[in-house]
Write a structure and sequence with these properties.
Number of strands: 11
Largest sheet: 7 strands, mixed
Structural class: mainly beta
Length: about 120
């Protein structure tokens, strides 16, 4: 029902910036909370940033002050602006949409930060 297509991942040097995009299949932001999860090798998937259907945002302590999540309703797209990237930010990043009891996941996009 809801499809999420991610783009923008890649290789970047430490201290650099990268912006991820998540394009939704339809107008979903009024009813779904959105989030960016990430999973590093050998670790559990964690929530890096989220934005509610009302527009409120939350960030993991590890990314607070460096990452910004936003959404553009006209484009049906969620963004994750990542600044001052660190090697520990290296992970597969997944876009997520949820509203109990439904949840949807993107395919994931690889972000690699070199030293």
């Amino acid at each position: 029902q809801v499809q999420l297509v991610e783009s923008g991942g890649g290789l970047v040097q430490a201290g650099g910036s990268l912006t991820l995009s998540c394009a939704a299949s339809g107008s979903v932001f009024s009813i779904y909370d959105m989030g960016w999860y990430r999973q590093a090798p050998g670790k559990q998937r964690e929530l890096a940033a989220s934005i509610t259907r009302f527009g409120g945002t939350n960030y993991a302590d590890s990314v607070k002050g460096r990452f910004t999540i936003s959404k553009d309703g006209a484009k049906n797209t969620v963004y994750l602006q990542m600044n001052s990237l660190k090697p520990e930010d290296t992970a597969v990043y997944y876009c997520h949409a949820g509203s109990f009891p439904q949840d949807y996941w993107g395919q994931g996009t690889q972000v690699t930060v070199s030293s």
